Amino acid sequence: PQQPLLLLLPADCPTPRVYTMSVANRLRQLVTQYAQQSRAQNSFSAAVSKRLQFVNAADNLRTSTFQFPLHQSDCHAFAMPTEGQTVHGGVIALVVEDITTMLLCANDARGRKALTTDMNLSFLGVGKVGRTIQIETEVLKVGSSLGVAEAKVSDVDTKKLLAIARHTMMYVGEDGSSTQFSSSLNSVFDV
Hints:
The chain is built from 3 helices and 8 strands. By secondary structure, the chain is an alpha+beta fold.
């Protein structure tokens, strides 16, 4: 039996709500479903979902940490072996977007899905093949219709900060829809 959990809500919310699924369990469920759904539908995130590692989350789920090993397939088309094979910025952007999406959906009191309204990413360094990046996320705000999260991407070994991102999402759909996926897991584009 699941224990009820008092979900911490923003200061502007007058009444906290009680849920039967803990917030941390909701994030774990989203991570698992993200991996299954992206692979089954052969989505753009399929390559990321196979290597993305959930490290931890704060008890109140305001912060989380993930790790992602960088492979040859993540390289920019013009990356040369003699130059250290740098990872394409789009790979880092995709990893950040997928992680902050799951974190913001897990933090929505109504458990809805969310769509990106804005995302900005500043690169401060480069990711290199053979290294692992760590993505530390923090929820900045969860409101009734929008959520905002920040992510810091760093090299696990050198601790060098590689990128900083801010992601804003609009909550959509029915209550509880963030953990509802297609029962068949087939893509509408499969032929």
